[in-house]
Amino acid sequence: MIPAGATVAELAFCLPDLPDVRDFAATQAVRSGMSQEGLADFLVALNEVATNAVTHGHTTAKAVLRMWTVGRTLVVEIHDEGRWDPGPAPGETPPGPHATSGMGLWVARMVSSDITFETGASGTFITMSFKV
């Protein structure tokens, strides 16, 4: 949930916009105080979740990125209109040794300080936190 009074940076996007999403997110992350060392891992996690949102999210293939800070934590929320039954928490199990897909949420879980998944009538929200 976005805290009252938080400044939220927001960007709507589709699949062809992913380079712009990464640029937008990198700018916001650096403004929030993220180090250059942390930026690479952050962008990998962001790209994986954003790509999933516009390739698996819904037939409209549109998503929204929202970013804000809480203290020394950068919070990133990606919302799409898709719904799914996540079963066990996604990304908790590492991919198999010869996997060629299905690694995105596991990678995002490994490099973020927290990740949550909510899915229902209003779509899917994936929220990640990163220490800055």
Automatic annotation (TrEMBL):
It holds the Pfam family HATPase_c_2. Keywords: Kinase, Serine/threonine-protein kinase, Transferase. The keyword Repressor does not apply. The keyword Transferase applies. Signal peptide: none annotated. InterPro entries: Anti-sigma-factor_SerPK, HATPase_C_sf, HATPase_dom. Residues 18-130 form the Histidine kinase/HSP90-like ATPase domain. It comes from the Bacteria. PANTHER family: ANTI-SIGMA-F FACTOR RSBW (PTHR35526:SF3), ANTI-SIGMA-F FACTOR RSBW-RELATED (PTHR35526). This is Histidine kinase/HSP90-like ATPase domain-containing protein. It comes from Streptosporangium oxazolinicum.
